[in-house]
Design brief:
There is one protein chain. The protein is of the alpha+beta class and about 110 residues long. About 35% of the residues lie in helices and about 25% in strands. It has one domain. It is built from three helices and five strands. It is globular.
């Protein structure tokens, strides 16, 4: 296992400790490129009422690049990219199909801040 794979596995393990199916993940739009094809989005949870930013771990878990400053670089347009980010995260943390027949991508909820 190389360094990148090890970092990814560690990030997934850390996020699985924090996030459980049914939890809400909050996203903040930090930047949109002039073309509209790239966004920088930050990821937060509020355990115990205090904000916790998870950009680094989420970026490592998804193997997506971090933006300079704040956020995760999310490519694409034409859909809710915050939902897309959280769906991909959820599918990574909870792979497969749940007892209701839904993809693991729907295990986490997403809301914008």
């Amino acid at each position: 296992m190389n360094k990148k794979e090890k970092e990814r596995e560690e990030a997934i393990a850390k996020l699985r400790e924090i996030l459980k199916a049914g939890d809400t993940v909050y996203t903040i739009l930090r930047h949109v490129s002039k073309s509209g094809m790239l966004r920088h989005i930050s990821v937060f949870t509020f355990p115990g009422g205090e904000p916790m930013q998870w950009d680094y771990n989420v970026a490592r878990a998804l193997d997506w690049p971090l933006a300079k400053g704040n956020g995760i670089k999310v490519d694409g347009a034409g859909m809710d990219m915050g939902f897309h980010l959280v769906y991909c995260l959820s599918a990574t943390l909870f792979p497969g199909v749940n007892e209701n027949g839904k993809s693991g991508g729907y295990a986490l909820k997403q809301r914008w801040l």
